[in-house]
Specification:
Layout: E1 4-7, H1 14-25, E2 30-32, E3 39-43, H2 47-57, E4 66-68, H3 72-78, H4 84-93, E5 98-103, H5 110-113, E6 118-122, H6 127-136, E7 140-141, H7 156-163, E8 169-172, E9 183-186, E10 193-196, H8 202-206, E11 213-214, E12 239-244, H9 247-263, E13 268-272, E14 284-287, H10 294-310, E15 315-319, H11 327-337, E16 342-344
Parallel strand pairs: 1-8, 2-8, 4-6, 5-9, 10-11, 12-15, 12-16, 13-14, 13-15
Antiparallel strand pairs: 2-3, 3-7, 4-7, 5-6, 9-10
Bound molecules: threonylcarbamoyladenylate and magnesium ion (MG).
Threonylcarbamoyladenylate (TXA) binds next to strand 5, strand 6 and strand 10.
Length: 347
Amino acid sequence: MKTRIYKQDDLENKLVQEDIKKTLLQGGNVIFPTETVYGIGAYALSEKGIKGIYEVKGRPSDNPLIMHVTSIEDVKKYTKEHMSYVETLMENFWPGPMTLVLKKKDIVPNMITGGLDSVGMRIPGHHIAKKVIEIAGVPICAPSANISGRPSATLFEHVLEDFKDKVDIIIDGGKSEVGLESTVIDVTREFPVILRPGVITKDMIEKLSIEVKENQEIDKSDVPKAPGMKYRHYAPKGQLIIVDGKLEDVISYMNQKIIEHTEKGLKTGIICTEDTKNRFPSAFAISIGNIENEEEIASNLFLTLRHMDKHDIDYIYSISFHQGKYSEAIMNRLMKAANYNVIQLDT
Ligand code: TXA
Ligand code: MG
């Protein structure tokens, strides 16, 4: 298969619009940018399209997909009645980086929900994502556009790495601004439960006078976890280790490790911030951003992990990020990418 590549401006072209629409309606796959990460899309009611996504991603079939639409009206076409607080969330955070898990109507195929009676719904804010859904005129299922287990793609180049000539169409939208996937919130009960943290935070929801719980606060037998959480995630090829502790201790620990690995002929990479990047003279150190700019850190996390892969790094050490409103979302991804491998230097 030869992938057709379009740029933002091409979406104004009638022939391109027809190609996108026809491809999706006939069960093809189209990758497009959203403000969180790139998504690999299929017509949500097309068995062929959905199958294509699971196959090309190598995704386990019990891990459900998010359905993307452009209006709250459309959300209601596919989901059952909900509690009143859900309306408040929808009105405040859509379009945007939030997914709500709602009770599904029968028309939503079991194939996209992994057999659950709920469906994840999202109205993305990115103009290209919106345009693609409008062009298609149907709901679009889209998981993150990465081979299962790899870091999500936030750059067009990273999408190409995983999917060139494996999908019908890829739309180049530059960098995904947010850089972390949407906050997934289960809203099927009296109070919302955050299943996957993101840049719509617990604090932001509480400011609307809505009581919200996090997945780990709930009795596990009581609430279904986001099924995706049990799988290995975001893993770079090199071994990622998070180092936690006082900054000076962390820096000297990492420099010691760099020496040990270099002696064995192994390459070490360091994920650090602007203010510390000059402190690792003999390693491949990437600054993920300014320590005080959590937006920047969030948006650079996945691309930094992929950057390490490009350089064939054997061991990657990352500082931890406990500061700022997105620290939970950032650490959630980083911990999974590291397979929970943390060196704690404080004790
Ligand atoms: O930002 C995003 O959410 C991106 C863009 C493309 O929209 N999409 C994305 O999709 O991250 P994906 O498939 O990589 O992650 C969806 C997550 C998974 O952890 C999945 O288990 C969970 O949402 N999920 C989806 N439907 C669910 C449901 N009915 N119940 C519980 N969890 C659900
Ligand atoms: Mg994903």
